[in-house]
Design brief:
It is flat, with a radius of gyration of 22 Å. A hairpin with an 8-residue loop joins strand 4 and strand 5. The chain is built from 12 helices and 8 strands. The mean pLDDT is about 90. The strands form 2 sheets. Strands 1, 4, 5, 6, 7 and 8 form a 6-stranded mixed sheet that branches. Strands 2-3 form a two-stranded antiparallel ribbon. The two termini are about 30 Å apart.
Length: about 325
Protein backbone atom coordinates (compact mmCIF):
# COMPACT_ATOMS: atom_id res chain seq x y z
CA UNK A 1 0.00 0.00 0.00
CA UNK A 2 3.00 2.31 -0.38
CA UNK A 3 1.45 4.12 -3.35
CA UNK A 4 -1.70 4.90 -1.35
CA UNK A 5 0.26 6.01 1.71
CA UNK A 6 2.63 8.30 -0.22
CA UNK A 7 -0.27 10.47 -1.35
CA UNK A 8 -1.36 11.09 2.25
CA UNK A 9 2.01 12.15 3.66
CA UNK A 10 4.03 15.25 2.86
CA UNK A 11 7.75 14.96 2.16
CA UNK A 12 8.38 18.13 4.17
CA UNK A 13 8.07 18.91 7.86
CA UNK A 14 8.61 16.72 10.88
CA UNK A 15 8.66 12.96 10.57
CA UNK A 16 5.25 11.43 11.22
CA UNK A 17 4.19 8.07 12.61
CA UNK A 18 4.71 5.47 9.84
CA UNK A 19 1.32 4.47 8.41
CA UNK A 20 2.16 0.76 8.68
CA UNK A 21 2.52 1.16 12.44
CA UNK A 22 -0.76 3.05 12.63
CA UNK A 23 -2.53 0.21 10.83
CA UNK A 24 -0.94 -2.45 13.03
CA UNK A 25 -1.87 -0.54 16.19
CA UNK A 26 -5.43 -0.13 14.91
CA UNK A 27 -5.58 -3.88 14.29
CA UNK A 28 -4.51 -4.51 17.89
CA UNK A 29 -7.28 -2.23 19.10
CA UNK A 30 -9.89 -4.29 17.23
CA UNK A 31 -8.48 -7.77 17.90
CA UNK A 32 -8.14 -7.23 21.64
CA UNK A 33 -11.24 -5.04 22.17
CA UNK A 34 -9.29 -2.04 23.47
CA UNK A 35 -11.84 0.66 24.16
CA UNK A 36 -9.90 3.86 23.53
CA UNK A 37 -6.76 5.26 21.94
CA UNK A 38 -5.46 6.23 25.39
CA UNK A 39 -5.70 2.63 26.60
CA UNK A 40 -4.19 1.37 23.35
CA UNK A 41 -1.09 3.54 23.72
CA UNK A 42 -0.71 2.55 27.37
CA UNK A 43 -0.85 -1.16 26.52
CA UNK A 44 1.63 -0.80 23.65
CA UNK A 45 3.95 0.94 26.10
CA UNK A 46 4.19 -1.98 28.55
CA UNK A 47 3.31 -5.03 26.42
CA UNK A 48 6.37 -6.33 24.58
CA UNK A 49 4.33 -8.44 22.17
CA UNK A 50 2.31 -5.39 21.17
CA UNK A 51 5.54 -3.45 20.65
CA UNK A 52 6.92 -6.24 18.45
CA UNK A 53 3.73 -6.42 16.38
CA UNK A 54 3.57 -2.65 15.84
CA UNK A 55 7.29 -2.46 14.99
CA UNK A 56 8.68 -0.64 18.04
CA UNK A 57 11.89 -1.62 19.81
CA UNK A 58 11.95 -2.32 23.54
CA UNK A 59 13.25 1.15 24.43
CA UNK A 60 11.46 3.17 21.72
CA UNK A 61 9.23 5.97 22.94
CA UNK A 62 5.52 5.33 22.40
CA UNK A 63 3.41 8.08 20.90
CA UNK A 64 1.05 10.24 22.89
CA UNK A 65 -2.55 9.13 22.42
CA UNK A 66 -3.51 12.51 20.91
CA UNK A 67 -0.66 12.25 18.37
CA UNK A 68 -1.76 8.75 17.47
CA UNK A 69 -5.36 9.90 16.96
CA UNK A 70 -4.38 12.90 14.84
CA UNK A 71 -2.16 10.79 12.57
CA UNK A 72 -4.56 7.85 12.40
CA UNK A 73 -7.34 10.13 11.14
CA UNK A 74 -5.53 10.41 7.80
CA UNK A 75 -5.93 6.69 7.25
CA UNK A 76 -9.47 6.54 8.57
CA UNK A 77 -11.31 7.08 5.33
CA UNK A 78 -13.39 4.82 3.14
CA UNK A 79 -10.86 4.67 0.30
CA UNK A 80 -7.81 3.55 2.29
CA UNK A 81 -9.69 1.04 4.46
CA UNK A 82 -11.33 -0.49 1.39
CA UNK A 83 -7.89 -0.95 -0.17
CA UNK A 84 -6.72 -2.62 3.05
CA UNK A 85 -9.81 -4.85 3.04
CA UNK A 86 -9.00 -5.80 -0.55
CA UNK A 87 -5.39 -6.68 0.33
CA UNK A 88 -6.57 -8.98 3.13
CA UNK A 89 -9.11 -10.60 0.82
CA UNK A 90 -6.35 -11.11 -1.76
CA UNK A 91 -4.51 -13.25 0.81
CA UNK A 92 -7.58 -15.45 1.10
CA UNK A 93 -7.89 -15.70 -2.68
CA UNK A 94 -4.21 -16.59 -2.94
CA UNK A 95 -4.80 -19.45 -0.48
CA UNK A 96 -7.87 -20.51 -2.52
CA UNK A 97 -10.23 -19.87 0.40
CA UNK A 98 -12.73 -17.90 -1.64
CA UNK A 99 -14.94 -19.45 -4.30
CA UNK A 100 -17.33 -17.69 -6.68
CA UNK A 101 -20.37 -19.95 -6.38
CA UNK A 102 -22.36 -19.41 -3.17
CA UNK A 103 -22.80 -16.29 -1.03
CA UNK A 104 -24.98 -14.84 1.72
CA UNK A 105 -25.87 -11.24 2.53
CA UNK A 106 -27.27 -9.39 5.52
CA UNK A 107 -27.20 -6.06 7.29
CA UNK A 108 -26.94 -4.90 10.89
CA UNK A 109 -27.47 -1.66 12.79
CA UNK A 110 -24.45 0.27 14.06
CA UNK A 111 -25.39 2.64 16.85
CA UNK A 112 -24.21 6.18 16.19
CA UNK A 113 -21.98 8.18 18.52
CA UNK A 114 -24.79 10.66 19.16
CA UNK A 115 -27.32 11.33 21.88
CA UNK A 116 -31.07 11.26 21.37
CA UNK A 117 -31.14 14.58 23.19
CA UNK A 118 -29.42 16.10 20.17
CA UNK A 119 -32.05 14.78 17.75
CA UNK A 120 -33.81 18.11 17.33
CA UNK A 121 -36.25 19.77 14.88
CA UNK A 122 -34.61 21.04 11.71
CA UNK A 123 -36.50 24.33 11.97
CA UNK A 124 -35.24 24.95 15.51
CA UNK A 125 -38.73 24.84 17.02
CA UNK A 126 -37.93 22.30 19.72
CA UNK A 127 -38.39 22.80 23.45
CA UNK A 128 -35.45 24.54 25.13
CA UNK A 129 -33.49 22.61 27.79
CA UNK A 130 -34.99 22.80 31.25
CA UNK A 131 -31.67 23.47 32.97
CA UNK A 132 -28.13 24.35 32.03
CA UNK A 133 -24.84 22.53 32.29
CA UNK A 134 -23.08 20.02 30.09
CA UNK A 135 -25.93 17.54 30.22
CA UNK A 136 -29.22 19.50 30.31
CA UNK A 137 -32.60 17.87 30.75
CA UNK A 138 -34.54 17.65 27.49
CA UNK A 139 -38.25 16.77 27.62
CA UNK A 140 -39.54 15.44 24.30
CA UNK A 141 -42.50 13.52 25.75
CA UNK A 142 -45.48 13.65 23.39
CA UNK A 143 -43.37 15.09 20.56
CA UNK A 144 -43.52 13.22 17.25
CA UNK A 145 -40.00 12.83 15.90
CA UNK A 146 -38.95 11.51 12.51
CA UNK A 147 -36.04 11.78 10.10
CA UNK A 148 -38.12 14.09 7.88
CA UNK A 149 -38.53 16.75 10.56
CA UNK A 150 -35.58 16.15 12.91
CA UNK A 151 -31.85 15.58 12.65
CA UNK A 152 -28.96 15.07 15.01
CA UNK A 153 -26.91 18.18 15.69
CA UNK A 154 -24.03 15.91 16.77
CA UNK A 155 -23.96 13.61 13.73
CA UNK A 156 -26.22 14.79 10.87
CA UNK A 157 -25.61 11.59 8.89
CA UNK A 158 -27.14 9.39 11.60
CA UNK A 159 -30.80 8.42 11.28
CA UNK A 160 -33.34 7.29 13.85
CA UNK A 161 -34.39 3.74 13.05
CA UNK A 162 -35.48 0.41 14.48
CA UNK A 163 -35.02 -2.89 12.69
CA UNK A 164 -37.94 -4.82 14.18
CA UNK A 165 -41.29 -4.21 15.83
CA UNK A 166 -41.14 -3.74 19.57
CA UNK A 167 -37.52 -2.61 19.44
CA UNK A 168 -36.50 0.88 20.49
CA UNK A 169 -35.55 3.49 17.92
CA UNK A 170 -31.93 4.67 18.03
CA UNK A 171 -29.68 6.93 16.01
CA UNK A 172 -27.68 4.57 13.86
CA UNK A 173 -26.09 3.55 10.57
CA UNK A 174 -26.44 0.26 8.75
CA UNK A 175 -23.51 -2.03 7.98
CA UNK A 176 -23.78 -4.69 5.27
CA UNK A 177 -21.67 -7.76 4.56
CA UNK A 178 -21.45 -10.23 1.68
CA UNK A 179 -20.16 -13.59 2.91
CA UNK A 180 -18.71 -16.49 0.94
CA UNK A 181 -20.53 -19.59 2.16
CA UNK A 182 -17.75 -22.18 2.03
CA UNK A 183 -15.33 -20.52 4.46
CA UNK A 184 -17.43 -17.76 6.01
CA UNK A 185 -15.10 -14.98 4.86
CA UNK A 186 -16.48 -11.52 4.10
CA UNK A 187 -15.89 -10.71 0.43
CA UNK A 188 -17.53 -7.27 0.33
CA UNK A 189 -18.86 -4.70 2.75
CA UNK A 190 -20.78 -1.45 2.64
CA UNK A 191 -22.08 1.10 5.12
CA UNK A 192 -25.18 3.17 4.44
CA UNK A 193 -27.61 5.56 6.01
CA UNK A 194 -30.52 3.60 7.43
CA UNK A 195 -33.75 3.22 5.51
CA UNK A 196 -36.33 0.55 4.76
CA UNK A 197 -34.64 -0.35 1.48
CA UNK A 198 -30.99 0.17 2.49
CA UNK A 199 -30.27 -3.55 2.92
CA UNK A 200 -31.54 -4.47 -0.53
CA UNK A 201 -29.84 -1.54 -2.27
CA UNK A 202 -26.52 -2.32 -0.60
CA UNK A 203 -26.90 -6.00 -1.49
CA UNK A 204 -27.37 -5.14 -5.16
CA UNK A 205 -24.28 -2.91 -5.12
CA UNK A 206 -22.13 -5.59 -3.51
CA UNK A 207 -23.41 -8.26 -5.89
CA UNK A 208 -22.47 -6.12 -8.90
CA UNK A 209 -18.96 -5.65 -7.52
CA UNK A 210 -18.22 -9.10 -6.17
CA UNK A 211 -20.44 -11.81 -7.69
CA UNK A 212 -19.27 -12.17 -11.27
CA UNK A 213 -20.09 -15.79 -12.07
CA UNK A 214 -23.42 -16.54 -13.76
CA UNK A 215 -25.48 -19.01 -11.78
CA UNK A 216 -24.03 -18.12 -8.38
CA UNK A 217 -26.45 -18.22 -5.47
CA UNK A 218 -27.22 -15.56 -2.85
CA UNK A 219 -28.79 -16.51 0.47
CA UNK A 220 -30.74 -13.91 2.45
CA UNK A 221 -33.47 -13.60 5.09
CA UNK A 222 -37.13 -12.67 4.59
CA UNK A 223 -36.37 -8.96 4.55
CA UNK A 224 -34.96 -9.43 1.04
CA UNK A 225 -38.07 -11.24 -0.24
CA UNK A 226 -39.24 -8.35 -2.42
CA UNK A 227 -40.15 -8.72 -6.07
CA UNK A 228 -37.95 -5.87 -7.25
CA UNK A 229 -34.88 -7.27 -5.47
CA UNK A 230 -35.45 -10.85 -6.63
CA UNK A 231 -35.91 -9.67 -10.23
CA UNK A 232 -32.73 -7.60 -9.98
CA UNK A 233 -30.75 -10.67 -8.87
CA UNK A 234 -32.11 -12.74 -11.72
CA UNK A 235 -31.21 -9.92 -14.09
CA UNK A 236 -27.61 -10.24 -12.84
CA UNK A 237 -27.86 -14.04 -13.40
CA UNK A 238 -27.70 -14.69 -9.65
CA UNK A 239 -30.01 -17.33 -8.20
CA UNK A 240 -31.96 -15.76 -5.29
CA UNK A 241 -31.91 -18.18 -2.34
CA UNK A 242 -34.04 -15.83 -0.26
CA UNK A 243 -36.16 -17.07 2.66
CA UNK A 244 -39.85 -16.99 1.78
CA UNK A 245 -42.38 -14.74 3.46
CA UNK A 246 -45.59 -16.45 4.49
CA UNK A 247 -47.68 -14.13 2.32
CA UNK A 248 -46.78 -12.47 -0.98
CA UNK A 249 -43.42 -14.14 -1.51
CA UNK A 250 -41.47 -13.41 -4.69
CA UNK A 251 -39.74 -16.82 -4.42
CA UNK A 252 -41.54 -19.67 -6.16
CA UNK A 253 -41.11 -23.37 -6.85
CA UNK A 254 -38.45 -22.74 -9.48
CA UNK A 255 -36.09 -22.02 -6.61
CA UNK A 256 -37.46 -23.85 -3.57
CA UNK A 257 -37.60 -27.27 -5.25
CA UNK A 258 -33.80 -27.59 -5.29
CA UNK A 259 -31.85 -29.04 -2.36
CA UNK A 260 -29.31 -26.25 -2.75
CA UNK A 261 -31.96 -23.72 -1.72
CA UNK A 262 -32.46 -25.39 1.67
CA UNK A 263 -28.70 -25.68 2.12
CA UNK A 264 -28.23 -21.96 1.42
CA UNK A 265 -30.89 -21.02 3.98
CA UNK A 266 -29.07 -23.11 6.57
CA UNK A 267 -25.61 -21.72 5.83
CA UNK A 268 -26.68 -18.08 5.49
CA UNK A 269 -27.20 -17.92 9.26
CA UNK A 270 -23.41 -18.01 9.66
CA UNK A 271 -23.32 -14.37 8.65
CA UNK A 272 -24.74 -13.59 12.09
CA UNK A 273 -21.47 -14.93 13.49
CA UNK A 274 -19.65 -12.27 11.46
CA UNK A 275 -21.79 -9.49 12.93
CA UNK A 276 -21.54 -11.04 16.40
CA UNK A 277 -17.73 -10.97 16.30
CA UNK A 278 -17.67 -7.46 14.83
CA UNK A 279 -19.89 -6.13 17.62
CA UNK A 280 -18.61 -7.99 20.67
CA UNK A 281 -14.89 -8.15 19.83
CA UNK A 282 -14.41 -5.59 17.06
CA UNK A 283 -16.26 -2.78 18.82
CA UNK A 284 -18.77 -2.19 16.03
CA UNK A 285 -21.87 -2.31 18.24
CA UNK A 286 -21.51 1.44 18.77
CA UNK A 287 -19.21 3.39 16.52
CA UNK A 288 -16.55 5.69 17.95
CA UNK A 289 -16.74 8.04 14.97
CA UNK A 290 -19.12 10.50 13.37
CA UNK A 291 -20.06 10.89 9.73
CA UNK A 292 -20.82 8.24 7.13
CA UNK A 293 -17.28 8.19 5.69
CA UNK A 294 -15.67 7.57 9.09
CA UNK A 295 -18.18 4.91 10.12
CA UNK A 296 -17.76 3.21 6.73
CA UNK A 297 -13.99 3.18 7.25
CA UNK A 298 -14.38 1.60 10.68
CA UNK A 299 -16.72 -1.06 9.24
CA UNK A 300 -14.31 -1.94 6.41
CA UNK A 301 -11.39 -2.20 8.81
CA UNK A 302 -13.33 -4.31 11.31
CA UNK A 303 -14.41 -6.83 8.67
CA UNK A 304 -10.83 -6.98 7.37
CA UNK A 305 -9.72 -7.85 10.91
CA UNK A 306 -12.45 -10.50 11.08
CA UNK A 307 -11.15 -12.08 7.87
CA UNK A 308 -7.65 -12.26 9.35
CA UNK A 309 -9.00 -13.99 12.46
CA UNK A 310 -11.14 -16.32 10.35
CA UNK A 311 -8.16 -17.28 8.19
CA UNK A 312 -6.17 -17.93 11.34
CA UNK A 313 -8.90 -20.30 12.52
CA UNK A 314 -8.95 -22.11 9.18
CA UNK A 315 -5.18 -22.58 9.21
CA UNK A 316 -5.03 -23.46 12.90
CA UNK A 317 -3.38 -20.23 14.02
CA UNK A 318 -4.43 -18.82 17.38
CA UNK A 319 -4.05 -15.53 19.20
CA UNK A 320 -4.61 -15.00 22.89
CA UNK A 321 -6.79 -12.25 24.36
CA UNK A 322 -5.09 -12.59 27.75
Amino acid sequence: MDSEFSVLYSKRGRQSIPPERLLRASLLQILFSIRSERQLVQQIDFNLLYRWFVGLTMDAEVWDHSTFTANRDRLLNEKITRVFFGRVLALAEWQELVSDDHFSVDGTLIEAWASMKRFQPKDGAGKPPEDGGRNPTVDFKGEKRSNDTHESTTDPDARIYKKSKGDKSVLCYMGHALMENRTGLVVDTQTTITSGSAEREAAKSMCKRSILKAGATLGADKGYDVGEFVDALRGMKITPHVAQKKVGSAIDGRTTRHAGYRQSLKIRKRIEEVFGWAKTVGGLRKTRFRGLDRVSAQTNFTFAAYNLVRMGTIFGWHYSTA
